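Hi there,

I know you've been waiting on this one. I reran it after we fixed the sequence typo, so this is the corrected version. Both the input and the resulting structure follow.
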Amino acid sequence: MDKNTLCSMFPELAFAKEADAFLSACPDMAVPEQLRARKINRIELKSLLSSGGLRINPGKDSFSVQLNDLGKTNEWAETLGHEIGHTFHFDISVRPLLDLCAGCRKDKDKIGKFEMIENFCNEFSRRWSEINVKEKVAERIKNTLSLVFQTWSATTS
């Protein structure tokens, strides 16, 4: 087993192998295609206490990534990668989406697994950001926001 894989770093997490396969495929996919592959169909800026979060959409068949509206674009890119990492502990092949690690935050016996998942998501984000060039992802987010605010400004004036 390659010592540089997520699977080798996090052997306790069965979904790490799927994440490694996804990262291997990323160079051949544009970022929007990557997001669609992980069932992410919306990125929202929100007033948050954290840098971001992953939310299951109302139909329970896709995700939204929420980014802190006070963050910087580079932070948004890192947070986006982290939240993509969280999609791997869901079975996205079923409807409704199934959280394979449900209860990790609340169950004291599983708190170590929760921390491991956070570490996994941080490492996934680092690798994803390298592949996709964090600065380019940040620029894309900034450009998208510029278009959103231009459209909003035009409709409110």
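Quick highlight: Helices lie at 6-9, 16-25, 31-37, 73-86, 111-132, 134-156.

Best,
R. S.
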